[in-house]
DNA sequence: TCGATGACACATT
DNA sequence: AAATGTGCCATCG
């Protein structure tokens, strides 16, 4: 019956990936690999990338908190997406180098600071 | 079915 | 820090 599998064609893994990304606290960042791992999809970082491309515009997702494993923004430095991600991260207090590099440890630490003090 | 592609990861150099 | 090569996996023509 209602076989809509030929119409929407949204992989079952996407919603899980989106949920993980939505759960990333402001001011912190995660790598594609980490997101995949937390979504129960180890070694599928590239699938995370595809899931991000497929995010409906109506869905507000903190996509800017997802970086490469080396702490770099995945977009080319001259692209619009790069600048947008840069701005969003800095708005949350994350330090981003001119080349788009972020210290993952430092970003994770910013949350610790909040919890560290009483 | 096969080959090319991609908002990646990892090891080496 | 940056460049290169290899591995992975779903999607597409």
Automatic annotation (TrEMBL):
Highest rank taxon of the organism: Bacteria
PANTHER family on file: 6-O-METHYLGUANINE DNA METHYLTRANSFERASE, ALKYLTRANSFERASE-LIKE PROTEIN 1
SUPFAM superfamilies in the cross-refs: Methylated DNA-protein cysteine methyltransferase, C-terminal domain (SSF46767)
Matches recorded under CDD domains: ATase
GO molecular function, one term: methyltransferase activity
Alphabetically ordered keywords of this record: DNA damage, Membrane, Methyltransferase, Transferase, Transmembrane, Transmembrane helix
Chain segments annotated as transmembrane: 17-36
Record flagged with keyword Transmembrane helix: yes
GO biological process: DNA repair; methylation
Protein name per the record: Methylated-DNA-protein-cysteine methyltransferase-like protein
Methylated-DNA-[protein]-cysteine S-methyltransferase DNA binding domain: residues covered: 16-94
Organism: Pseudofulvimonas gallinarii
InterPro entries the record matches: ATL_DNA_repair (IPR052520), MethylDNA_cys_MeTrfase_DNA-bd (IPR014048), MethylDNA_cys_MeTrfase_DNAb (IPR036217), WH-like_DNA-bd_sf (IPR036388)
